[in-house]
């Protein structure tokens, strides 16, 4: 099917793509963001470069089942519960990591007002003038501290995704764009709080694996760990059924702590079905990521997830990746390995090489992880 960008009756009045390309060439703007595209006057259909053909076998989409709900973990019980409640919480975390690779975290220590402020600041960033944002654009390295971009892996994507993003490395060294006003301070505070949350949660996760509480923190060198903010903008799309916000993938790092602006769009794969994640205000959506799967020698599974778009509301999500230090060689915990009964299922690789692999390959799903699988 051929999808045209503008219907023919509008062709004479609408600014056309070539004009847009021309202005890209003549200014400091390096790529066309979805925001620029979505705000073009009279956009009624999407350019063919954004049309996504889905595999119908892939398409079992449902809301969560009452008999198998998305796990909910009460973080406060790790600290203020009775010993029994704490033990049960650790057990539940382990089960969620094993069966879903995903859970919702409630009663955590990050103030609701700070979560809202962070989302507002991200929104304000995306509302800056395009030239101001494009200062951070370019096909750069994974170690570049601030990257503004669009799609998923723009230099590799055959079909583009309906998403603009900014990725910021906030640890071991803190970086931030200077605009909009207040972004830096809010981001710094949000990152401090989520970092603490992630590290505490990883203690519970270590225990759930039968390891010492600080095992992951220590072996993954989290004192110097990489922490990254990936903020995503999904604007309303005129043909949401033909476009995709983010393709199925799993994340690098140990955990991804995701929040959103109250608009749903995340789907996680569970028992071969895409489950719509219904949002609960004030909770973190916690995604088990590839390096936790590797450390656990495959006991815990990084979750395949994707983001769908709608034609109604603008969606913002803010992902916080808690990850090993760049030079850590991530490999299965030796305590969990037995050469006879449970041999290592993954080869060791530094976090930096892993990220490079993700960037330079046209790889979706779990195919980066599959490259280190034995
Ligand atoms: C991500 C991600 C999903 C979302 O940033 O890695 O998967 O819902 N985001 O935006
Ligand atoms: Ni992700």
From TrEMBL:
Region described as Disordered: spans on this chain: 47-66
Residue ranges with Acidic residues bias: 56-66
One Pfam family here: 2OG-FeII_Oxy
Signal peptide positions (record): none
UniProt keywords, alphabetically: Iron, Metal-binding, Oxidoreductase, Vitamin C
Keyword Oxidoreductase appears in the UniProt entry: yes
The keyword Transmembrane helix appears for this protein: no
Domain Fe2OG dioxygenase: 224-324
Family: Belongs to the iron/ascorbate-dependent oxidoreductase family.
Entry protein name: Fe2OG dioxygenase domain-containing protein
UniProt source species: Stylosanthes scabra
């Amino acid at each position: 099917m051929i999808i045209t960008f503008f219907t023919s009756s509008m062709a004479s009045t609408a600014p056309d793509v070539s004009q847009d390309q021309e202005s890209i060439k003549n200014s400091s703007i390096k790529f066309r963001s979805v925001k620029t595209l979505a705000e073009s006057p009279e956009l009624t259909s999407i350019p063919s470069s954004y049309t996504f053909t889905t595999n119908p076998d892939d398409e079992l989409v449902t809301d969560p089942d009452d008999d198998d709900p998305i796990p909910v973990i009460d973080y406060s019980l790790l600290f203020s519960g009775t010993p029994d409640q704490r033990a049960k919480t650790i057990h539940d975390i382990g089960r969620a990591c094993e069966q879903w690779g995903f859970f919702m975290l409630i009663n955590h220590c990050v103030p609701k007002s700070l979560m809202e402020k962070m989302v507002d600041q991200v929104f304000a960033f995306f509302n800056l003038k395009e030239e101001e944002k494009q200062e951070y654009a370019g096909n750069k390295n994974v170690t570049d501290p601030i990257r503004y971009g669009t799609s998923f892996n723009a230099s590799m994507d055959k079909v583009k995704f309906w998403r603009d993003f900014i990725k910021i490395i906030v640890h071991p060294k803190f970086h931030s764009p200077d605009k909009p006003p207040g972004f830096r301070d809010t981001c710094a505070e949000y990152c401090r709080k989520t970092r603490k949350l992630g590290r505490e949660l990883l203690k519970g996760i270590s225990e759930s694996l039968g390891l010492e509480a600080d095992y992951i923190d220590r072996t993954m060198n989290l004192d110097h760990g990489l922490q990254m903010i990936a903020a995503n903008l999904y604007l309303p799309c005129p043909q949401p059924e033909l476009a995709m916000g983010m393709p199925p993938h799993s994340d690098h790092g140990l955990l991804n702590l995701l929040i959103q602006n109250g608009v749903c769009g995340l789907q996680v794969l569970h028992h071969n079905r895409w489950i719509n994640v219904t949002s609960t205000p004030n909770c973190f959506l916690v995604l088990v990521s590839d390096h936790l799967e590797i450390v656990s020698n495959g006991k815990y599974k990084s979750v395949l997830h994707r983001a769908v778009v709608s034609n109604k509301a603008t969606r913002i999500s803010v992902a916080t990746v808690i990850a090993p230090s760049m030079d850590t060689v991530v490999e299965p915990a030796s305590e969990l390995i037995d050469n006879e009964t449970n041999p290592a299922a993954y080869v060791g690789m530094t976090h930096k090489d892993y990220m490079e692999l993700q960037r330079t390959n046209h790889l979706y799903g779990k195919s980066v992880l599959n490259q280190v699988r034995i």
